[in-house]
Amino acid sequence: MLFNLFPLSPANMLAxxxxxxTVLWRRYATKHACLVAYEKHDDVKGIPSTFPYVFxxxxxxxxxxxxxxxxFVLNPKNFFQSAQPVLVKILTQEFxxxxxxxxxxxxxxxxxxxxxxxxxxxxxxxxxxxxxxxxSLYDKDDSGSSHVPHxxxxxxxxxxxxxxxxxxxxxxxxGKKLLPFWNRFADxxxxxxxxxxxxxxxxxxxxxxxxxxxxxxxxxxxxxxxCGPYLLKLNPNFLxxxxxxxxxxxxxxxxxxxxxxxxxxxxxxxxxxxxKIWQQHARDHYDDSAMGADGDDPFWGSSFFRERHEMFLxxxxxxxxxxxxxxxxxxxxxxxxxxxVSWAIFEIYRDPELLASVRAEVDxxxxxxxxxxxxxxxxxxxxxxxxxxxxxxxxxxxxxFYIIKMPDRVDMNIRDWVIPRRKVIVTLTTVAHxxxxxxxxGFDNEHPxxxxxxxxxxxxxxGSDPCNVQAHGSTLAFSTKEYEGSWIPYGGGPRxxxxxxxxxxxxxxxTALIISLFDCEVLEEGKTVQEDLTLKGFGGGISHPTNLVxxxxxxxx
Length: 557
Hints:
By secondary structure, the chain is an alpha+beta fold. The protein has helices at residues 2-5, 10-40, 69-73, 101-110, 117-126, 132-140, 161-174, 178-200, 210-227, 230-234, 238-247, 249-253, 262-285, 303-313, 320-332, 335-349, 352-363, 378-381, 385-398, 429-433, 500-517; strands at 86-90, 93-97, 205-207, 366-368, 374-376, 399-405, 412-414, 417-419, 425-428, 458-459, 477-478, 518-522, 540-542, 551-555.
């Protein structure tokens, strides 16, 4: 019918194109005017206004996000760059974006009224394959996140899946069980890195990828400390499958069906099967005589998993397969700190001045044990300013993560902005960490926010040159206080990442050991590393490099 009315003659085609260009230009001009008015409008408090859009059905559909997520979210005209909370509408979905240091601080302060159940359920179902019967418990759990359930809730105490699951993690990573876990890791990573030290030798040896060399050692030690020795012993390919799963995380979360990504789903099946094999072995061989003084044992590893196993079996709808999905989620969560170690080592070894500064610090608190091995007191490492600055800057530069919250039963107040209950709130670490107005970039912007610079977190003596870290020695002081609301790698509020205490210690100790045991030269072609910031790599936490980092490595005398 359309072609009958408008035959495809050259004149009609030209007229149609001119008409289309005119319509699109008018819509663009309208949107531009709306954006200008939006940016200049007064801070009228209340429910945030809607971010302007042109096309009614598409609304603020982020087409450019598909090609370059990072560039999209950092575009000054993007809704993630709004100075005040804003409602974003995309197709049939709506969510509120909250960015800016003061707004983020207020969000975290008010987030005690929030629930994470829909997002935990989404992640467990899509990424970790939690069976539907167990997943349905999250839909039924209306008891809240407090110790005392909501008075209107009818959920039995044993079926408070969200509260009980989260509390088990908090007690492990923030309570008295953290110390035994930490001690196991410290002993294992020391042994693991000395084994690498013996294998490397005293002459320069070529390795194809620094990130894999470091990542493998730290992953092995972390899994051993968490799960005991049998997960890796019974499943020799678990290390590779673990990282294959990790690289495909966005495939699962985007809901891509298995027949379009068979390798990704095969990797997930392998890691879940490995956890089932390990836990079946633990059920078959554990008895109380195997339990150590700290409650751990060689079969389950941390008492955390043994106790969670008992807890989950009390809950309706949970069987061994459901427990494996839940527990692999807890195991996978260590990936961010492991990846951070690799990036921190990369940054240190490619900068001789920074390497000298960090080595001077860690050498000052290194001791030798009776077996001749280097030992570090973690409390001393936690006081070293340059080492901590490397840790903080690595997390700032390499963390790409969506922090998602939702007010549950009441509206949320954020500096007099009102977010209605049951509405999704999104904060993006990338926007906070790349805000040049919030971060120190040097005297003349010689250290832009998209480049690594440990000096961002160091307070220098008055009148000194902040570019020369090594020259200041003990006069430096580390601080993140002035970046509150801008440095948010662990989120914030009551559900702030409970693993942050272990992660910090893990990163500092491993970094100190590596630079004390090895000399490493990053080859020229490896000094510039590209991150995977495609749809597959963006938004899941610490980034992966897309290219190898070839090195020469040897024992440090």
